[in-house]
Design brief:
alpha/beta; Rossmann fold; Helicase, Ruva Protein, domain 3; Methane Monooxygenase Hydroxylase, Chain G, domain 1; 3 domains; five-stranded parallel β-sheet; three-stranded antiparallel β-sheet; 8 strands; globular
């Protein structure tokens, strides 16, 4: 029966989740306020969200705020090979909780028991029975966490059990700033560290990811025998997390280094001059883990969270993806291009086909979604995707896809040939320094008086 020592003040961001859970805290502190009005607090709250978003921390904070005992267990502990072992553990957990009420019972990854019904190990039924057994407002509240609410047994989601769902999502920019401030406590930070800039570069990061980022930055600073964590250590730690550690001792020939530099310079050049596209944050040709080299773009927070992409954005994305291969062709000739763009071709083809078959961006196909006919998922992706249209329509789809790809290719080639001087300067800078940040990259366009592409 450990005391958590955690309160809502220790949970940065997740304001909406904390607001909903505040009712649970209030009930545990002042149950008479609710029972006098005939109200019943939810017996179970399901915390739903991606991994590492702070669901367990929130559950501990509820117990800490209310000052009540906290019992926790992973649902996997209740899944046993031998009949009765898991059920016995469920009974023991709830018996201890009832003897210490009011209290919090926390079940982590509760979706682990989703397949037990009808299998002889009826853990789900036992959970349901135990939760229904709390007569009146007994003060025992069950919190559970999952990132797969869709696979939970319906019996758990009925009123009187887990009848309330609290969403714990990835933090936005402002939330990431607060989380970075929390995880920077006790760390010696230099004055050049800007949490706002870090937050904008860590789109999609969870609280645990940001904690790991600051810890990695501290380790890098110690390794470099520094007394403070500078912005460079944080930037390097971020790239290490995203793409892997630098392989500075890797032997790279001058020819390969030049080819890679022009490939990445071509991609970055097209991306910078495409209207309504994500700005370039950093370019590096230093080998890193399995990623090799990288060109980092700073995607739009609003676009990523909404999942809404315009036709022009997708067309620009295809053009940017072509930039590397086109740079190779222009500089080294078509007979000397490499296989480095193989993944780029797959990406471009996939986007173009989605535009035609799913998004209604083809005039010839119209506002119709095609190509989504199910199939047997156990036969693999190729066999499971059954075509639900005729051969004639398939020819039209293929022609539309090819037209989108070729248009994107010609747009990218026009940009690179028009601004070939900037391409040379950027590639040379990459060869000399290995890495070029966004500000230095944009200075090349200011000096070259480059203009955005106009179709």
């Amino acid at each position: 029966m450990p005391e958590t020592g955690v309160t809502f003040a220790d949970v940065a961001e997740a304001d909406q989740a904390k607001l909903e859970l505040q009712e649970v805290v209030d009930f545990l502190k002042n149950p008479v306020k609710y029972t006098a009005l005939g109200a019943k607090i939810p017996k179970g709250c399901l915390l739903v969200g991606p991994p590492c978003t702070g669901k367990t921390l929130l559950a501990r904070a509820v117990a800490g705020e209310a000052g009540v005992p906290f019992f926790s267990s992973a649902a996997s502990e209740f899944v046993e090979l031998f009949v009765g072992v898991g059920a016995s553990r469920v009974r023991d957990l709830f018996d201890k909780a009832k003897s210490k009420a009011p209290c919090i019972v926390f079940i982590d990854e509760i979706d682990a028991v989703r397949r037990q019904r009808g299998a002889g190990l009826d853990t789900v039924s036992l959970f349901s029975t135990e939760m229904d057994g709390f007569y009146g407002n007994s003060g025992v509240i069950v919190l559970a966490a999952t990132n797969r609410p869709d696979v939970l047994d319906a019996a758990l989601l009925t009123p009187g059990r887990f009848d309330r769902q609290v969403t714990v999502d990835r933090p936005e920019v402002a939330g990431r700033v607060k989380i970075l401030q929390v995880h920077s406590r006790g760390k010696a930070l230099a004055k050049d560290v800007d949490f706002g800039k870090i937050a904008r570069r860590t789109l999609g990061f969870t609280g645990a990811d940001l904690q790991n980022l600051m810890n990695e930055a501290a380790i890098l600073a110690a390794r470099r025998e520094l007394k403070e964590i500078n912005k460079d250590e944080i930037s390097d730690a971020l790239e290490r997390i995203i793409a892997g550690p630098e392989m500075k001792n890797a032997v790279v020939s001058d020819e390969k280094e030049k080819l890679v530099a022009y490939h990445e310079a071509g991609r970055a050049l097209v991306g910078a001059l495409m209207p309504e596209y994500d700005p370039v944050a950093k370019i590096s040709i230093i080998p890193r883990g399995q990623a090799g080299v990288l060109t980092l773009f700073a995607p739009s927070e609003e676009r990523l969270e909404s999942g809404l992409y315009s036709r022009s954005y997708l067309e620009n994305q295809m053009a940017v993806t072509h930039g590397g291969r086109i740079a190779e062709e222009v500089i080294f000739g078509k007979e000397n291009v490499t296989t480095g763009a193989s993944n780029d071709f797959m990406r471009v083809s996939w986007v173009a086909r989605q535009m035609v078959e799913r998004f209604g961006f083809s005039k010839k196909i119209g506002q119709v979604a095609i190509g989504g006919g199910g199939g047997n998922p156990f036969l693999g992706p190729q066999m499971s995707l059954q075509k639900d249209y005729s051969m004639e329509t398939a020819d039209v789809v293929d022609a539309e896809v090819r037209d989108l790809v070729e248009t994107a290719y010609s747009r990218a080639k026009q940009i690179i040939t028009t601004h070939i001087d900037i391409l040379h300067k950027l590639a040379q800078l990459l060869i000399e320094k290995g890495t070029v940040d966004g500000e230095e990259f944009m200075s090349l366009f200011i000096d070259g008086k480059a203009e955005l592409y106009v179709s």
